[in-house]
Design brief:
Elements: H1 3-27, E1 34-44, E2 58-62, E3 65-74, E4 82-89, H2 100-108, E5 114-122, E6 125-133, H3 136-141, H4 156-165, E7 173-180, H5 195-207, E8 209-215, H6 226-243, E9 247-248, H7 260-270, E10 273-280, E11 287-290, E12 292-295, E13 300-303, E14 307-310
Parallel strand pairs: 4-5, 4-7, 7-8, 8-9
Antiparallel strand pairs: 1-10, 1-13, 2-3, 2-12, 3-10, 5-6, 11-14
Helix pairs in contact: 4-5, 5-6
Amino acid sequence: MNLSRLLSVGLLGLAVWVYSANAWGQQEPPTGGVPAHMVVTAEPKHGNEVPTISQADVMVMEGKDKDTVTDWIPAQGDHAALELFVLLDDGSSFSLGRQLDDIKHFVEGQPATAKIGIAYMQNGIARVEQNLTSDHAQAAKALRLPMGIRGVNASPYFSLSDLVKRWPADNARHEVIMVTDGIDPYYGIGDLEDPYLDAAIDDSLRAGVIVSAIYNPGVGHFGHDYWLTYWGQNYLAELTDMTGGEGYYLGMTGSPVAFQPYLNDLAQRLQHQYWLGFLAKPEKKAGLQRVRVGTEVKGVDLVAARQVYVQAPQ
């Protein structure tokens, strides 16, 4: 083989190698993950003191895989913005009237960085009595006695979904405190799976809304039937657990003596929240992905939603 032909073969081989390397590179899966975020509450195991938690202390797990944490920012200062709706059941018993002062004090006691809205569950929608406002005294004035008519609220989970779907996205924390018996008259009581509850959970997770709930009995027979209230409280417990909130109830059919202890606890939780950012596993389509958030720091639990909405990879 002469020299010119040898050079031609060598150049051809080099070109094939370069092309193959480029083609292989294009077939490689994308590195890293898809940016995702959620709000996490640091809950002390004893007392009210929350230990210091750094970004390096936080773990996000998807199955057995550990995601990369990119942000761990306290919801304070420039990051303290909060939008909170108080969502009350218009089918509640009039005993709720005894709790209105506690709710007013809670609303008026929120920091200036919080916007408060007041809405009532009515005929399957969230009837907004006061839009989100920084004027906490004005928001407190919108509180009123419930109508006290069984059925006026339809399913409380219809109203929650309605509220969440109409809530514009922004850079503030979005949270709801529901006051209801949790009973869903539109589905079979005693069923482990309620499609309307599941839909409300799904809507809240997709919108990144944390839902907490205070059990309060409904009017009439629903207000003292143990079987009905047992399942209503179970549904509320599932809703709050799945979305990263807190459920408050006594495990009985009666009305709480006071809401103040519950609302004080909720106020403490709002003061110990963080913005968590991480790289989630890339999936073919956008959707909810199951995650676990935890830490090895002693004396504290990290409470977060069980699923997070992740965009499709670009």
